[in-house]
Amino acid sequence: MPICQERVHKKKAAEKFPPLDDLIQMLGKLIRPYAVFMLRGIEEGKIQNRLGITVENAEKMSAFILYGIWGLIYNDRFTQTAVGTGLDDMEVILRKLFY
Predict the structure, then answer these.
(1) Residue with the larger pLDDT of the pair 24 and 28
(2) Domain region containing 62
(3) How many domains does the chain have?
(4) pTM, 2 dp
(5) Alpha carbon distance 95, 99 (integer Å)
């Protein structure tokens, strides 16, 4: 792709999506609530604990899962590759991790 077309493509991509800092801030605010959600699901027997999640590591695991999911869903939109996946793919992955 010629350099001028590449710049236009990147500018259009940037206009469609909020700044990455905003997305990262949103994900950061979800880490603790998602950790509590996972622990509650494990305690109530609604999800399996295949990953060995404990109170001590729940927030780290939560961050890993949330950022990983975000990367799977949105990677192609920010990198202009065909690597991204859809919400259906995310559900399949989460079921393999927790059920």
Answers:
(1) 28
(2) 18-98
(3) 1
(4) 0.63
(5) 5
